[in-house]
């Protein structure tokens, strides 16, 4: 190979190296821009989700809890067909939008669907005293919420609030968790890995909850963090709920 050819070859090699590094540089820049956009959108979405949905069956104590948190006093409540909305200021954290979703089965799914996209947290309130009587309804409603595709995607924190602990025959959070897991395991099996929840206007598909091949446990719901806590709205004992709200905010 002549010196002229060697020189020409060297120029080509240099250009190829420059092109190679240029391609890598462009790829890195595109990757960084994509990461920045993703973080920006994720952060914006998280900041915009400031809602706390209070859900549960009728007479679980949701509205009493709502009034004590928002108005600092007990307000006479009754079965409502519409939601209650208030702003709750959390020290050093900003404001949360508290939504008391009606517990009536005819309207609760429609109202939950209206607010689930902005939910930062979900508080499922249940009656610790009457759980044995209501266990099937409680499990079905809870399963419907936890298996909701939007909830699974947005990953709000979930608190199962075992209310009415002032009753002498009320079950504690650990017992309630065990009872619920057994009932939801039966529910999951009978629904053939999928619960079809009928909402106003049509059917809504849901995801399989937990881990296949074993009994249902809340700890196996990888997309959600589910916690249990005790409360007694009647005696104004909401300390566990307030601590949870502080951590969520």
Automatic annotation (TrEMBL):
Transmembrane segments: 20-42
Major subcellular location class: endoplasmic reticulum
Its membrane topology: Single-pass membrane protein
SMART domains xrefs: ARF
SUPFAM superfamilies the UniProt entry points to: P-loop containing nucleoside triphosphate hydrolases
Keywords from the UniProt entry: Endoplasmic reticulum, GTP-binding, Membrane, Nucleotide-binding, Receptor, Transmembrane, Transmembrane helix
An example Gene Ontology CC term for this record: endoplasmic reticulum membrane
Domain of life, source organism: Eukaryota
An annotated Gene Ontology molecular function: GTP binding
Intracellular or extracellular location(s): Endoplasmic reticulum membrane
Pfam families: SRPRB
UniProt KW Nucleotide-binding keyword: yes
CDD domains on file: SR_beta
Alphabetical list of InterPro entries matching this protein: ARL15, P-loop_NTPase, SRP_receptor_beta_su
Assigned protein family: Belongs to the SRP receptor beta subunit family.
Protein name, entry field: Signal recognition particle receptor subunit beta
Lineage start: Eukaryota, Metazoa, Ecdysozoa, Arthropoda, Crustacea
């Amino acid at each position: 190979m002549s010196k002229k050819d060697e020189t020409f070859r060297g120029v080509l090699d240099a250009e190829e190296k420059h092109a190679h590094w240029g391609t890598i540089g462009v790829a890195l820049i595109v990757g960084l821009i994509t990461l920045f956009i993703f973080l920006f959108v994720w952060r914006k979405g998280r900041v915009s989700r400031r809602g706390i949905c209070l859900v549960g069956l009728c007479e679980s104590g949701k509205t009493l809890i709502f009034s004590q948190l928002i108005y600092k006093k007990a307000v006479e409540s009754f079965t409502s067909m519409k939601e209650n909305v208030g702003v709750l200021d959390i020290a050093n954290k900003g404001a949360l939008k508290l939504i008391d979703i009606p517990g009536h089965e005819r309207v609760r799914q429609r109202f939950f669907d209206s607010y689930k996209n902005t939910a930062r947290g979900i508080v499922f309130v249940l009656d610790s005293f009457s759980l044995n009587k209501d266990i099937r309804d409680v499990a079905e409603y809870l399963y419907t919420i936890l298996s909701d595709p939007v909830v699974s995607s947005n990953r709000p924190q979930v608190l199962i609030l075992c209310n009415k602990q002032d009753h002498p025959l009320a079950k504690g959070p650990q017992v309630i968790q065990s009872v619920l897991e057994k009932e939801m395991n039966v529910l999951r099996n009978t629904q053939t890995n999928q619960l079809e929840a009928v909402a106003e206007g049509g059917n809504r598909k849901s995801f399989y909850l937990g881990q296949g091949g074993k009994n249902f446990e809340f700890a196996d719901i990888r997309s959600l963090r589910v916690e249990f806590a005790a409360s007694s709205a009647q005696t104004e004992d909401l300390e566990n709920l307030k601590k949870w709200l502080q951590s969520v905010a």
